[in-house]
Amino acid sequence: MSVNPMAYEAQFFGFTPQTCMLRVYIAFQDYLFEMMLVVESVILKKLDGFPDCKISPFQIRKSTEKFLLFMKEHFDKLFSKMEEVLLQLVLNIPKNVLLPEDKVHEQYPYSKEQFQVLQDEINQLQQQYRAEASAGQALRAELEEQKAVRAELEKILQWFDGLENICREHGTGNFKESFAFLTQSSKKLQDVLKDVEEKSKKIKKHD
After folding, report:
1. Do residues 47 and 60 make contact, with C-beta atoms less than 8 angstroms apart?
2. Alpha carbons 25 and 67: distance in angstroms, whole number
3. What CA–CA distance (Å, rounded) separates 83 from 105?
């Protein structure tokens, strides 16, 4: 069998020419075996009509196998020549023939170097796309985080609005001044608390 891959022919036919020839070879070989079995059975039936014949079925089988081997050797030689002719003249696409689906290569020919440049450019674009997709995902996550922070800020603003309304209801006109006053008072209380703690420590040390 031919070792040429014949990939272009496989693209056109949908199967490799070598596969086709192998199937033809197997079909012919099976037919040859079946034919020899038929011939053997006919000979055995004919011998039944001659009781005095000294040829045994074993001898007939041996002769049949010998004749089958002879036929197979000649068949292999003939099939080898037939295969060579079919692969060259029937199942072969000439070098100057271009399949319809490959016409675009004739219109836009590219060398191996040009193809490699295009391949490198495609790989670079794919990497850029992955980087942009990752950055977009990070931006979407940040946007979701900002939405959550904004929601919390809106809650705080609503709380300050409610606190300002309460201050107005209790006679405090300016919420900012009230808040500043509360901050200063809180700081004074912290200073007093700190002073008390220091004096308490001194008393404990003295005791």
Report:
1. yes
2. 19
3. 31
Angle between helices 17-48 and 57-89 (to 10 degrees): 160
Distances (CA, A) of 11 to 1, 17, 83, 88, 89: 20, 11, 20, 17, 17
Each residue's pLDDT tens digit, 114-172 = 778 888 899 999 999 999 998 888 888 888 888 888 888 778 777 766 766 666 665 55
- Whole-angstrom CA distances from 10 to 6, 17, 82, 83, 153 are 6, 7, 20, 16, 69
Biggest distance spanned by C-alpha atoms of the chain = 145
pLDDT tens-digit series, residues 66-94: 999 999 999 999 999 999 898 888 888 88
Residue 135: closest CA among 143, 124, 145? 143
Tell me the CA distances in angstroms from 93 to 10, 86, 154, 195, one per residue in order: 10, 12, 76, 103
CB neighbourhood size of 64 (10 A): 17
DSSP 14: S
Tokens 């007939």 found at: 60
- Of 20, 42, 137, 183, the C-alpha closest to 86 is 20
- Long-range Cβ contact pairs of 130-134 (< 8 A, separation 24 or more): none
